[in-house]
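task queued by scheduler; priority normal; single chain, no ligands, no partner chains; default sampling; output format set to structure tokens
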Amino acid sequence: MRLLEYNIGEGVRAFSTKRDGGIGSGTYAGFNITHYCGDDEQAVAHARALLCQELNIDISRLFLPRQTHGSEVLRIDNDFLSSDIELQDELLYGKDAVITDVPGLCIGVSTADCVPILLYDSLKRVVAAVHAGWRGTLSRIVEKCLETMIECYGSSPSDIKAIIGPSISLQAFEVGEEVYDAFAKDTFPMQQIACRMDDKWHIDLWEANRLQLLGCGIADNSVVICGICTYTQYAEFFSARRLGIESGRIFNGIILE
């Protein structure tokens, strides 16, 4: 198992998993902790155990929502932690962003071309993980996550740093006219986030989410785009467009130490 680690601040660990390690095979080779993408249960459990060992946490302290390309945000707080596993699973279903201020918990989102965004409020000590595919970007999920941090924890955008992790690049993300029109209709600055290549529209999800972060008040130098395209680097990071939907997922995690 190898991790791509990010320097997002002291007292917090943020990372994205790479494909190396684990016991997965085929399009799931090798390291995948996502349980709902069709992988072998034993391989997923093995990968989860390895990750928790690396993070020095119990497996019960690892939380991954069942994402549905929506825009709902879940707080992992003491009320959630005191719930039974069945209720926790129910609450995790249909969430595409998670937030916590509880130390020693690893929260994260799964991606395989969609954009993962990891957030850290260094003053209030709050972390968040956001899954923003084109639908999530269009529904402004990262803005909704930031609004929740501000409302529930008193966060200030000036104290927040953001990482935009491995995901599909502008050059690789070809879209149909209907997707372009949906962004244009929602007043996205198309001249900044879209261009035509070989008579096809391409959209820059990295820039679309970066602009949302800046629009919420996060400083330009507090937003880092890692610049790794999963479509072109699919040997190292899972890419659903390259490998198919029945393939592994990157886990993009963050933990308050």
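post-processing summary
- The chain has one domain: 3-168+223-256.
- The domain at 3-168+223-256 is CATH 3.60.140.10 (CNF1/YfiH-like putative cysteine hydrolases).
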